[in-house]
Amino acid sequence: MTKLILYHGTSAEKARKIEKEGFVPDKTYNWGVKSKKGFVYLSVAYAPFYAMNHSTRKLAIIKVEVDTKDMYPEDDFIMCALGKRKYTQEQLDSVDLESYKHLWEKSLKFLGNVAVKPDNVRIIGVRYFDGKGLLMKCDPVICPENFMILGDYYKRLSEWIFQGKEIMKFPNFMECN
Question: How large is the C-alpha radius of gyration of the chain?
Answer without folding.
Answer: 15
